[in-house]
Amino acid sequence: MAKLKQQSLQKRDAELANAKRQLEILSNGIFQNGELPTFAKKIKETNQLPLRPKKLEILQINVGYMCNQVCEHCHVDAGPDRKEIMTWETMEQCLEVIKNTEAHTLDLTGGAPEMNPHFRRFVEEASKAGIKDFIVRSNLTIIRANKKYHDLPEFFKKHNVHVVSSMPHWTRGKTDKQRGEGVFDMSIKALQELNAVGYGMPDSDLRLDLVYNPNGAYLPGDQASMEKEMKAALLEDFDIRFHSLFAITNLPIARFLDYLIASENYEDYMYQLVEAYNPAAVENVMCTNTISISWDGFLYDCDFNQMLKLPVASKVKHIKDYNEDLLNDRNIMISQHCYGCTAGAGSSCQGTVAN
Amino acid sequence: MAANNYYDPADLRKFGKITEWSEELGNKFFDYYGKVFEEGALTAREKALIALAVAHTEQCPYCIDAYTKDTLQRGVTKEQMMEAIHVGAAIKSGATLVHGTMMMNKVNKLEM
């Protein structure tokens, strides 16, 4: 069992458990005194304000904030102490939407989505809807955390689920420092088990992609180079194969923001994000093709806005009232955390967005 | 210049501004600099590690700051970074010691 690093900000009653306070920090200081331009000002320079949605492609459903890990950088502030879990009633409302949506991708996330007691029933029902790409974001260690999860690789295979998993580095030290002691070894074992049922093999349709995110106050390197390094290292050291690596930038919210402030890296990090701003990444930023649904059924432009409690600027606020056309006619809510998705080659739940 | 220090970390952000007082030369430098660090016969990662080692032998605080961050971004481990610096340190100390042969030659020439 992985040793937990800490409790969630919420459990600790920390200042940054409060989304409003996070938004204040992101709007004050260097952004208030004009040292750095606000995100709105920056995208206005290239006539991209207001940011508007394009065609909906991805429905991302957060089925709960409970997780078996307490990763240092977690933007959800997830952990074993989080009790926000999607009910079956809300899942049924989601299923109705999944049946009728024009989105081609369904993306289940958390916390550890597998810890939702209705997870398997939901996957079984959702997989019948004929969605082209059905993603589950699995933290890997959950597969080894308890006997009741050991058959997850087989379960994923049965429903042709596309598994996307975090693996911040190919070395034990870097991985455990971010995700908790013992996480690396458990993740390696889980990856080997996924490989054993066919996931990640070169010619396999069972997609296994990994997510890399930096281990501190710096941006991710080139995605293609990192993928090459990660593939070579995991193959040589552990005989593990996977398909693609998504390099994701840590956004300055929740626990990562807490870390940035505590380590006195906040201003430097914001400078890095702003200096790496790429207007081409704004074109394809994920909030323009995604709707994020929270555990309690509310709708957001992305998972980050969900955590900052910035709901969609639309009459349609909840999954029970879902109307895709109405929802697509909205302005996307932005703040300075959005720089995280537009730095360098850009960043989304599917990795980089610009060349 | 910062009030009480010759070096200020914030000055690193101003590096690009050197073009303001000599645009043509500044631009030529940055074009060259950018080209050098592109993928070539060496990978960008290998070049970043060389730059980190040289940053230390040059004892340039700005370069150390920049290439520590750059190598971390490229997934380089602490152990690899330290080994690269040892390469620089070995060459530095070797370069000192190998000059000892000059001293030995001179002594041999001067002494009876």
Automatic annotation (TrEMBL), chain A:
Its cofactor is [4Fe-4S] cluster. InterPro entries: Aldolase_TIM, ArsS-like_C, rSAM, rSAM_ArsS-like, rSAM_sf. The keyword Iron-sulfur applies. Residues 219-352 form the Arsenosugar biosynthesis radical SAM protein ArsS-like C-terminal domain. Residues 61-199 form the Radical SAM core domain. PANTHER family: FE-S OXIDOREDUCTASE, SLR0304 PROTEIN. This is Radical SAM/Cys-rich domain protein.
UniProtKB/TrEMBL annotation, chain B:
Transmembrane segments: none annotated. SUPFAM superfamilies: AhpD-like (SSF69118). Residues 24-96 form the Carboxymuconolactone decarboxylase-like domain. Coiled coil: none annotated. GO terms for molecular function: peroxiredoxin activity. Pfam families: CMD (PF02627). NCBIfam families: ahpD_dom, perox_w_seleSAM. This is Alkyl hydroperoxide reductase AhpD.
